[in-house]
Amino acid sequence: MEETRDQGNPVIQKVEEKDASSLVAISGHPLHAMSVHFPIAFVFATLGVDLLYWWTGDAFWLRVGLWSSGGAFFLGMAAGAVGTAELLLVPGIRARVASWAHAIAAMTLIAVMGANWGVRATNLLDVLPQGLFLSGLSAVLTGIAGWHGGKLIFDHGVGLMVSSKD
Q1: Which one of 38, 59, 61, 63 is separated from 94 by 20 to 30 angstroms, measured CA to CA?
Q2: Does residue 141 belong to any structural domain of this protein?
Q3: Which residues form the DUF2231 domain (predicted)?
């Protein structure tokens, strides 16, 4: 029913007419969509590592957490740079409100990941409770940013390049 109502909305029709295919891609494969997987994995790995440190008290997990949080932050910065380029370069992406919601959630996530890595890089003893809290917050923000990113791809077709063969 909502689809029928939206089809008559001239604003939505105008937005949907704009091309939202990826400009930052290799052979039609969008770099942003390809680059987010490692930071996401590192966010959840850091949360797991923090929980293992809390449970065991083994200093090994402090070192692993330093590396995994650093990986999450720096690879997240790279993915964010590519995503920002897409947002700014493609009018069809910029025109969608969901793109901005995804961008804001992702930028907040990158800031929290940076704080999480910074806590560990400056003083490994601050992992409990600050690092564990930041790891949990990062996981929640990853879910929020991922939800909005998925909606952009699956509901709006943002970043997709469909070949004439399809």
Answers
A1: 38
A2: yes
A3: 28-159
